[in-house]
Amino acid sequence: MSSVPVTTWSLEQTSPADLLPAAAPEGDVRIARAEVPSPEFSRYLYASVGGDIRWTDRLGWTYARWQEYLDRPGVETWVAYDRGTPGGYVELDPQDEGVVEIAYFGLVPAFRGRRIGGHLLSYGTARAWDLAERWPGRTPTKRVWLHTCSKDGEFAMDNYQRRGFKLFDTKVELEPEVAAPGPWPGAYRV
What we know:
The protein has 190 residues and is an alpha+beta fold. The chain has five helices and seven strands. β3 (76-82) and β4 form a beta hairpin.
């Protein structure tokens, strides 16, 4: 198996004032929290959004592993719907000492390029900043961070920076080259 260099950039906001919201897209785009932890729905979002950009780390997770992850207090999934169809999501993973990671964010390929991504990222970041308000006992958010890599969509880094995220770390590592799995095996030809 061959390896390819992958650059990973880590970005952060250290104040709610850092967030630079995008305008809402035209049409009937709504964002709602998936309040019932559902391994099936979360795996669908993960595979559908990341299938063409080689998200593979969770594809082997069992149902029980998904459920364990989703049941952690403070883990939230916010979904963008266009006329009732899920088009993308942002997943918040609270960590210690008021830190919240945007663990996953993206759009299903058919929904990209329609100005939904900036709006969803803005909304999800705002929910990271006010996460403690929905989870009594959690430390108020002091930092929101995420990472993106050279395998992600071509506009990902620009979107993060336009929303006010600042770069704090860059790493380059060799990773095994894998085929894009699609939302189901063989769905995408690369």
